[in-house]
């Protein structure tokens, strides 16, 4: 029950923030908002305030704001062009559309900012805890307890930075490490060796290694509000880039489609992170918010990114596409969205069945 409640709250907050972005920008640019809905399908409860109906709908898998004169089939019925979405300038429409994903990115920044400023960050220092026998590290005389200060003249602050630097090199090349051992500081040169391992996407690949393991030491770092804000922006930027890479690898087949999860998987993960503590749940919510923002700016029909492409075409043509063409594009987009939703639901069900240990 707790898992279900947490999942509904997390997903509901992300949807609300996304649609609020569209809602506020539409209001700011003078477009009438007819409906603000959390969920799709039949209306469960709601109320009307001003010119907008606020409702909670049956299917909690998303949300929407219905704008006056938004859909192609409603354009001929528009009586007040000044308040209609379709008659706004392309860049006005683009602002309204992009505001949803931007709201999700902003939410992620605010959550990470709060966490970094209040809780701080934890890092594993670039200190050697164990040397692998017959490894490049052992051959050059490195020892447990040695602290790695620099790699090829670049300062490293954590073991994660060291690993990232080494794995960014596809072809082995000589590496110069600046080492601190007690009161001594010296440099060593070594050649990484290639071994098979799994990357962050779960794909088996060949990576360069030097044969060391991290120490068990963990350093807690506190941050003032300004540095915490900078770290939050950096974190969201890193996550955004990582998600785009994952999407590209998904289309190229490097990441199996079976790894995708839908609402059930998200709900299960939300419940698990909630048990770990509020900071973990907040962090998970921020990561999901970035995911939602990235997915929505993909240039696919029905998504916000698909609308942006249409507005770009409209700008180049000096006029919008014909109503028939727009309707066809949206129908194709709807089919794609339904197909993707069914696919991730299928993955969710398979994961559930495996979790129940059914034959």
Automatic annotation (TrEMBL):
Pfam families linked to this entry: PDZ_6, Peptidase_M50
PROSITE patterns: PDZ
Enzyme class per UniProt: hydrolase
SUPFAM superfamilies: PDZ domain-like
Keyword terms of this UniProt record: Hydrolase, Membrane, Metal-binding, Metalloprotease, Protease, Transmembrane, Transmembrane helix, Zinc
Cofactors: Zn(2+)
Residue intervals of the PDZ domain: 119-183
Any GO molecular function: metalloendopeptidase activity
Annotated localization: Membrane
UniProt record, GO biological process: proteolysis
Signal sequence range: none
Protein name listed in UniProt: Zinc metalloprotease
Lineage of origin: Bacteria, Pseudomonadati, Thermodesulfobacteriota, Thermodesulfobacteria, Thermodesulfobacteriales
Gene name of this polypeptide: rseP
């Amino acid at each position: 029950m707790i898992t279900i409640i947490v999942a509904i709250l997390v997903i509901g907050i992300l949807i609300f923030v996304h649609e609020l972005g569209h809602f506020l920008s539409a209001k700011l640019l003078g477009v009438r908002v007819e409906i603000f809905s959390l969920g799709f399908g039949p209306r469960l409860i709601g109320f009307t305030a001003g010119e907008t109906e606020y409702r909670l709908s049956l299917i909690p898998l998303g949300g929407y704001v219905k704008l006056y004169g938004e859909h192609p089939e409603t354009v001929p019925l528009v009586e007040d062009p000044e308040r209609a979405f379709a008659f706004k300038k392309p860049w006005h429409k683009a602002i309204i559309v992009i505001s949803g994903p931007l709201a999700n990115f902003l939410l992620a920044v605010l959550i990470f900012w709060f966490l970094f400023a209040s809780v701080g960050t934890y890092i594993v220092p670039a200190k050697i805890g164990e040397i692998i026998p017959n490894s490049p590290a052992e051959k050059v005389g490195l020892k447990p307890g040695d602290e790695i200060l620099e790699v090829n003249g670049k300062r490293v602050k954590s073991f994660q930075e060291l690993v990232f630097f080494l794995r960014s090199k596809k072809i082995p090349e000589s590496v110069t490490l600046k080492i601190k051992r007690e009161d001594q500081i010296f440099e060593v040169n070594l050649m990484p060796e290639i071994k098979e391992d799994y990357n962050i996407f779960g794909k088996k690949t060949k990576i360069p290694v030097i044969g060391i393991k991290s120490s068990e030491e963990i350093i807690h770092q506190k941050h003032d509000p300004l540095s915490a804000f900078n770290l939050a922006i950096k974190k969201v930027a890193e996550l955004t880039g990582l998600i785009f890479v994952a999407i590209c690898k998904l289309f190229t087949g490097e990441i199996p489609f079976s790894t995708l999860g839908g609402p059930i998987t998200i709900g299960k993960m939300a419940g698990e992170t909630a048990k770990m503590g509020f900071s973990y749940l907040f962090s998970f919510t921020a990561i999901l918010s970035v995911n939602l923002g990235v997915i929505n700016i993909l240039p696919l029909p029905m998504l916000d990114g698909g609308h942006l492409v249409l507005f770009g075409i409209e700008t180049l043509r000096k006029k919008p596409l014909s109503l028939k063409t727009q309707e066809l594009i949206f129908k194709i987009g709807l089919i794609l969205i339904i197909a993707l939703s069914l696919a991730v639901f299928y993955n969710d069900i398979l994961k559930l069945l495996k979790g129940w240990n059914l034959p």
